[in-house]
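Schema walkthrough. Field components (list of strings):
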Amino acid sequence: MMDVTKYQIGYYNPPKTEYRWVHKDHIEKAPSWCSVDLRDGNQSLIVPMSLEEKLEFFQLLVKIGFKEIEVGFPAASETEYEFLRTLIEQNMIPEDVTVQVLTQCRDHIIRKTFEAVQGAPSAVIHFYNSTSVAQREQVFKKSKEEIKKIATDGATLVKQLAAEYPGNFRFEYSPESFTGTEPEYALEVCNAVLDIMQPTPEKPMIINLPVTVAMSMSHIYANQIEYMSDNLKYRDSVVLSLHPHNDRGCGVADTELALLAGADRVEGTLFGNGERTGNVDLITLAMNLYTHGVDPKLDFSDMPAIVELYERVTRMHVYERTPYAGALVFAAFSGSHQDAIAKGMNWRKEKGLHQWNVPYIPIDPTDIGRTYDGDVIRINSQSGKGGIGFLLQQKFGYDLPPKMREHFGYTVKSISDHAHKELSPDEVAQVFYDTYLNKCAPVDIPDAHFIQKNGIFAAITVTMPDGSTKESSAQGNGRLDAVCNALKAATGQDFTIETYSEHSLQHGSTSEVAAYVGLRWGDGTVTWGAGTDTDIIRAGIKAMVSAANNK
Ligand SMILES: CC(=O)SCCNC(=O)CCNC(=O)[C@H](O)C(C)(C)COP(=O)(O)OP(=O)(O)OC[C@H]1O[C@@H](n2cnc3c(N)ncnc32)[C@H](O)[C@@H]1OP(=O)(O)O
Ligand SMILES: CC(C)C(=O)C(=O)O
Ligand SMILES: [Mg+2]
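Field assembly_structure (string):
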C-alpha cells in the first residue's frame, strides 16, 4: 500500500497577495536562452558524452542559435576540463557565443574552474550552493547565516580571481534548491551575493532561481519569481534566470508562468534531458512561442537531424510523443482526425492561405523538416475514408469519387484490422491496384469501335468468363453507355452505370487519364472499378470492366 501520510507540502508561497503576472495572457518576446545540455544534461546520462561527442553537440547548439552554452563542470573530470580547453585552444567558440562553466562555492573547485576557462573570449562563471531547508539541515548541517556565508565566500573568491585572470567574465549565482527555500531567505542570500559582485546595467549579473526539484504547482513558482523580481537589489543590473526541472511534469508550465512573472532568461536542454525527469525542454518552449507568432530566435527547421544527433551522442531516445519532435506528433491514425486534416489541407490549398490553422496539426510539419507524406495521415484499423482517400490522392494522384472512397476505406481498414498492423502508403496503394485498377480478367473488352448515329453505336469484342471471345454491339447515349449495353448483351449480366468520373493523372512525363465506374446490379449491390489509359474512352472501358469483374 502507498502511504500518503508520509508526505506534506514543502514549498513556500511568498509574502505577497496581489500578483501582476496573473493578468498577462501571453509571452511577448523570447527570453535569452542558455543550453545546459553539456552540463546538467551530460551529468545525468548513464554514460556521459565523450570529448568528441560533446564537441559535436556543441556545434549543433551553435547552429541552432544558442548564444550562451553551459559547457560543463570543468573541475568534475578530465573530459570536462579537456573539452573546455579544446574549445578554447582550437578557437571553436564563435565570437557571439559565450561559454558558461559551473562551480560549487568551494575554494579549490573555483580555482580549478578559472584555470580551465583561461583564454576564453568571454565566459560566465556560474557558482552555486544549496539554500533549502532540507539541504541546510541534512546535508550541510549549517545555520542560515553559515549557508549565506558559503555563498558570499564563493562570490568573494570568484570576484577576486576574475580580477587576477585576464578575460571577459560575467557571473551567475544560483541558490540551488531555491524552490525548497523560504523566499525571504533566498532573497537575503541573493542580495548578499549581489552586494559583493556589484553588478551594473553595463555589466549585469545573472541570478538563476532553479526549480532544482519541482515541489509545487506552476503558479507558486511564478509567485516566487515575481516576488524575487520585485525585491532583488540592483534589479536593473540583474538578468533574472530560470532553471526548471520536471519532477511534476510541469517544467514547461513552470517556465512559461515564470516568464510572465518577470524572468529574462531560461536554462534548459534539448528534449528535456537532465537530472531525473530532466530539465525543461527548450524545444517545446521555443516552439510554443513560435506557434503564437513570436520569433523564438532558435532554429529548429531541421528537427530530424537534431533528433538523430541527440539520440546518437546521448544514447537517449526521443519519446514518440515528445512535443514537436517525436515521431508520432503529427500522425493521425483515427478516421475523424484524418477527415478533418484532409479537409483542412484542401481548404488551405484552395484559399491559398498563409496562416496555419489546420485542425489537429498545431504547426506546419514542413516548418521543422517533417513531411505531409507519411508523417501526417497514417493508416490502420482506426482510419476512415477521408484520410485513406486523401493519402491515395496526395501521394499517388487517384481522386476517387466519394462513394468509392467509402468502399475503398472499408476495404483498407479491414485488411489492417485482420493483419493487426499499420499499412504503409505503398501498401494502401497496392490495395487500390489489386482491388480496382485495370482488372481486365476474366471479362475483358480488348476492342471497341464507334459510329455516331442516333446517339452512339458501339461494336465490341468481349473476352467471356470462359475465355472465349464474342462480338457484340448496342446503341447508347454516350460511348461508355453504348459499350455497357453491348457488354450486358454479350454476358447477359444485369447492371447499370451509377457513377462515372475521370481526371488526368500525371506519371512523370506521360499523361494518363484515371476513370472510376460504379455499377449497380439487379440485386441492388454496387461494385467499383478504376481504369487508367492514355485514351479517355479506354480508361472508362477498363474501369467498367474492372467493376464488372468485381461482382
Ligand atoms: C543541482 C546540480 O545539478 S548541482 C551540479 C552537480 N553536478 C555534479 O556534481 C557533477 C560534477 N561533480 C563532481 O564531479 C564532484 O561532485 C566534484 C568534483 C564537484 C566534487 O567532488 P568531491 O569533493 O569528491 O565530492 P562531493 O561532490 O561528494 O563533495 C561534497 C562536499 O561538497 C560540499 N558541497 C556540495 N555542493 C557544494 C556547493 N555548491 N558549495 C559548497 N560546498 C558544496 C558538500 O557539502 C560536501 O561537503 P563535505 O565534504 O563537508 O561533506
Ligand atoms: C546548478 C543548479 C543551477 C542546478 O542545476 C539546479 O539547481 O538544478
Ligand atoms: Mg539542474
